[in-house]
Known about the structure:
heterodimer, A: 6-stranded mixed β-sheet, B: alpha/beta, 31% helix, disordered N terminus
Amino acid sequence: MNHRVRTVSLSVPWSRGFRVVVLLLIILGTISGCGKPVDRPIVITFPASAVGRVAELLRKQLDRFENEHPDIRIELRRTPDASEIQESPGFPTGCRIQSGNIGNVYGGYVASQWDSNSYQLSVISYQLSVISYQLSVEGDFPSGRFAIAPSVCSHSREGFSVRFCVALGLCFSAMPASAQDETAGAETFFETNIRPVLAAKCFKCHGTQKATNGLRVDSRKTLIEGGKHGPAVVGGDPEGSLLIRAVRYQDERKMPPNERLSAEVVADLERWIAQGAIWPDAAIAKDAPDAGEHWAFRPVRSVKIPVPNREDAGAPIGPSPGSSGCASVWASGPVDFFVFAKLQEHGLNPSESADKPTLLRRATFDLIGLPPMPAEVDAFLADESPTAFAKVVDRLLASPLYGQRWGRHWLDLVRYTDDFDESWRYRDWVVNAFNADLPYDQFVRQQIAGDLLPTSEPGGVHADAIVATTVLSIGPWTGIDRKKRLTDIADDQIDIVSRSFLGLTIACARCHDHKFDPITTADYYGLAGIFLSSRVIPDEGYLSHGTTRLRIPLVGEAEVERHRQHQARVQELEQCVQAEVEQHYAEFARSLLPQIARYLLAAWDYQHRPADQAPLSIDEFTTRESLHAFALNQWIAYLKAPALGEFLPLNVPERDFDGEPGVLAWRVRAERPWWAVNTNAQEVPIETFCLPPRTLSINPGTEGGAVGWKSPLTGTVKITGKLTDADPLDGVGVVWAIDHVRNRARHELSSGTCVNGTVKLEEGRTPQRLAAVEVQPGDEIFLQVRLRQGDAHYDITNVELVITALDGTATWDLTRDVLDSFLVGNPHGDSLGNRAVWHFDDMAGSRRLERMPAVDPLLERWRTASAKTAVADRHELEDTAREVQQALEGAGPHKALVDDLTGSRSPFWVRARDDAKYLSAESQAALAQLTAQLEALKHSLPPLPCAHGVLEGGLRHGLYPGLQDAPIHIRGSYDQLGTRVPRHFPAVLVKGDQPLICSGSGRMELARWLGSVDNPLTARVLVNRLWQHHFGEGIVRTPSNFGALGERPTHPEMLDFLSARFVESGWSIKAMHWLMMLSSTYQQSSRAGAQSLKADPENRLLGRMNRQRLEAEAIHDALLAVAGRLDARPGGPAETNPMSSRRMLYIKATRSNRSGLGPLFDAADAAMHVERRTVSTVAPQALYLMNDPWIADAARQLTERPDIAAETDPPRRIQAMYKLVFGRRPTPTEVELGCGFVERAKLEPLQREPGSSESGEPWVVYTQALLLSNEFMFFD
Amino acid sequence: MHAFDSDRTRAGTSRRQWLTTCANGFGMLGLAGLLAEAQAALPSDDATSLFAPRQPHHAPQAKQVIFLFMGGGPSHVDLFDPKPRLTADHGKPLPFEKPKLARTTTENLMASPFAFRRHGESGIEVSELLPHVAACVDEICVVRSVVADNVNHSNACLQMHTGEQVFSRPSLGSWLLYGLGSENQNLPGFVAIGPGGQDAGLWGSSFLPAAYQGTRMDDLKKPIANLANARLSSAGQRRQLDLVRELNQQHRHERDNDSRLEARIASFELAFRMQVQAPEAFDIGAESPAVQKLYGLDEPRTAAFGKQCLLARRLVERGVRSVEVFSPAGWDHHTGIRTELPASCDSIDRPVAGLLTDLKARGLLDETLVLWGGEFGRSPVAQKGDGRDHHPYGFTMWLAGGGIRGGLVHGATDEFGWHAVEDKVHVHDLHATILHLMGIDHERLTYRYSGRDYRLTDVHGQVIHEIIA
């Protein structure tokens, strides 16, 4: 099947405000229907939203057109839906329209015929994701009215292969002359009698600078919409118009306030409104700098392709050979008419076409970032058909390498970095999006709100779209001030979104209204509210130092649940293993108890070893003595430990703690521990934690806090209770220990940890010891709580503690006993009437550590004896050691010490993994088996695939939890708040049509608005970026600043034409590549004539192609490619080996490393938005290329390629090299030069050590010279 | 017209000589082809050169800067800011609210365990830990009232180097290179010596052309990468480059309008020359034993920093615009003020004094601005017993040479050494002053990036005229 497609542009004045342009894609069947009149009607399709408003006026235009062309019938229809299109006659069989894409169907679906020259028109309108254009003029067109910019479109797409030939630009001269006459009078009246008055008397308070009472009178639209008091103007009704009432000084609102307008002026205004308040669209369409509003903020205009001057047509304008002074001959696409017209204005001509090798090299680097390979060069040179270049572009666009090249351009904008585990998924998403030609509106939407887009199946996950939101989460923010960090995150997001998508620097308005663009701080915080109502870090990230990113699962809930269960099983097994391990350790410790005397003496001996043995290491010493080194080490420390300091009672009572009524506390100073009770029946949230109703909590501070129970009875008690982390998002968890103290002797009963959850005291290390504790009056039981790690300084923990007499006579419930009378005193009595039973202590200075040795009279005896024994009296110590051992073997009275010495505080306890080798063989085997089992379980399920990204709802503990508007931060400071601003988009861009944000953060609405035609910037900015990469410079040369400080477009009409076309093509980036690359403008030579250089040194008129230096990635990849070792595998986690042969895109790039080839050749700084690479030329680059072994290796590999090595004849080898490296044939001089160099090198060696040279070396040096040359580094 | 005498011979090669010997007489080391914006900011007689010396805004008092960076934050109350009240109130709580961003435990006030003595004619008090620096105190202006905005190392370091705490901005050295160019085209214009694991943003050029980023020199034996070719003899490489030049001449035929091509040809010639000349600049062994000893190269504890300082001198002597020397000793003394601070001081005391003495002896001190300090100071209260925490609210840095009034104390902290209370000097003020001394108006050194003019001092900064001679 082969078609010709023709686009017809109808320009229709609408609503007296602006023009609506409907572009028709008409496909001309050149085969089947040629010459045969067909009588089906033309059907024009346009967005459904425009039907009601445009239909009538369009109808008029079409009537006129039909009158002039009686043989054409045109019928208006609404946009068909997918099934209608699919069933339509022109739709290729076997193709389906993807549901959801119908919104992108513009233009097209027309089935019909145009007659007078016997063309069959069959029209089609599904999503054209790839459209290509090329020259093709067929037949005679109706004369006069049409500018013809004919093209050929070839289209290929998975599933079917159709080639369409698209011709462009039948521009109907839209406005009928008589209609123009009608309105001309009204326009003149407005311009002479109305606008000057409004400008002089009203704009100051109701214009761009200020809109008092919400009213602006600088456009018809804003007048009709009105302000706080309602519409100012009702078209055709002066009496009903507030404006008239105000200028008449009729009501209390008298305008202008200081100076009543003259009766004539008032009468003019009345007449103007009576006639419909005509506000000529010319004022909007005109691109004059002082037209009131900045060009970029106006809607994209429909632009007519400039019609070449009839008189000039066909007449050569310039002398340059090969190039034509005739637009219709030179031009291959619509852009050429714009470029040509501008050149013509300046009396310049385009340059001649580039030769084929140059064009191929240009297009190949441009689209895939690599040089063309010899076979490709041969194929292109051999193809003499007019579509040869189109085929090349087609091939390159279809290559997966294309996305790797153009994806990188996008990554430059969004400060992409491999610093985060999952960021590669976003990189791959971008590459795939380019390769699949994901419509740009969807590309935008997914990045802003991919998590909110509907999924293809209920309950499914739109994994790709979630990955797309990674862009919002990889900012470079850090910092300890968590509130500022939150606002920095939002700032980074606003900056990236506004610069990348809108080409605006909205982040400037963080502290003050934008100095140059009409962006206010209110606009900034309107956007900030949207981003602050979303989150990219987990809640705990806010509380910690906060560089962690969210990890959002990319699989369904069922799969996540499977992982959760798996994780729970792993944890369960881990706990089992831990318990099992401890049992083995305890057994081992018990087995060493009979050696305690030996260890006591050995510890003393080692510390008192004679001078000649001083260098003896503990390993050598223990080997000699047949002891375990780790145990002896631990014994030395254990015995050395100083006596414990006392706990100090907290002595500062505090009511309404932290300003919360009903919260009472005992404390000392800020960071010391405090104990607090919440006596309220409701929970009390304070900062990051929450005190549950009627509970007792401790903040252990930096050194820990304790609660003590002083026994009033003789008997046996049981200890129960639990700890709950009240602050699960912060802190590192706590360790706890319960000690029993009698007469200053202190033994641990049990201990454990509590991290983010609840633990029962019965779940500690030695629960059995809590079950029955014998106490005497005056004995104390301490529950001590300390932070797990030293550098944290708080982790609030709720505490319950119950001590029960086993005989059932009494129960002490800490909470019950103290809650309602907490501040009566410290110590505090119990509910049985005993005084001073409970006390709350500060552990600071007590040096009570988790693994403190027991304080036991028996050990004290040894400590005292060993301390005062002289070396000469060592034998006395032997007796003491024996006594200690005997006492312990006697069990009974020293049970507590035995418990200690077989528990986790024991010096015999295995702590380091290495020391486990001392365990019995059976124990080791059992533990190894357990570990293996655990590892097997862990690896039985691959890790859950996750992406960094964004979720709805501000951080729970952040400045603005959930969904809410943000207040203005005065001078950007979060602690100086102004008024709250409703979440909205910059007013200057939406012109009053603020989308309602009813539910959610507003990201969905933002995403829709960014990716819509209502937004004047999105399409323009992207089209300009595409242009910039193809041509080296954008149409706007400040690609991320379309604001007042940015540059003006060199070709404003062309920019708008392309933007409109971009939208019509279904936001197809590949269609834009076609349009740009198949133009004659793109295919010009980069060698400029003197006239062009002189008149236009910066090439703003595009009278030649810009030569471009390869970007860092292209240098890297091209070297690998010509060396024959490019590894073009796509995707996956970043390659950590910098010497890898993969494309540079895939080699890990971090923010902290700015060394290596990338930064040397101006690669993008991963910490910032890079709108355009600088191109520096510095000596270190030359040093790198001259001396880095990597380059020499590439040169060697190149010479060793089979296709090069096979050429043994030097001239032929040089020819092969030139084709490979430069994509062209060498000149005879170049061949001679190369042969001469190699010949001479054989006679006069180049190497440092000539003897070691290989025969191939001269060729390697020659090859490297080719790689060093300018021709390799630039493309024309 | 340059304010700097760019033809002066300093290290054997003058710029003019170089111009005439370079291929095609094309005198530039670097070139950014698309630098229209950059050139708009500072007029230059060589509109395409990245590194050519450029005319300053006003007569400069310093021509180059050496920043001795004590990463981690040296303790001001133990080194340059004696506080009798701290000694008197040792062990008492801080008598006022600590700032909201204090990181950890606020323990009690801790007296400096070190004695201060007056030195020099100026009688400025310096701690006993820095006896050699103290001997140079009449050259030094001690600023005791520096204020920074962040208590985190990474953010505070960024601010000290770029003015901005979070986002990527060009570093001081990059701004200087952009504003003034360099006087030696055979060496990098901005060098970071021994930064180790520090964030590359500290010497990064951010949105300025990448060529303005600091050249990192960690391995002093091989300071610049790829300075030698392992395979080719010098003559062999010359022949290879001659071939490249031939190829490039062929290529330039019909492309002679493109100055970038010519610049690249020149860059190879320059690189070839650098191979010969740069190693000489790095050859510390060429210094006399007396000079080596002056920098403490004779003792292991001072040798590392001594070599860095000596290299810094050799570089500024050869016209390198900006050198930053990173102290290999740590200054983040959360513990061990008593034991570890003396060791850190010891490692830099002789080298720093040696640098000042040597610069002065060579007549270079007048034109070389030396800056010493960290990203913040340390808290007057104790941490973990005998340590001190980060402290940006008032701390000491000092400057010497290049237009600085020596023997002066500027600004003061309160009687505990906590808040800067007199003549506060914000980091932006410090930057403004450094630029001023180099002949640059900090409000006029701007770079247009993405449609906005950026400067080192953002919208802040006051030149501290009191400390300028």
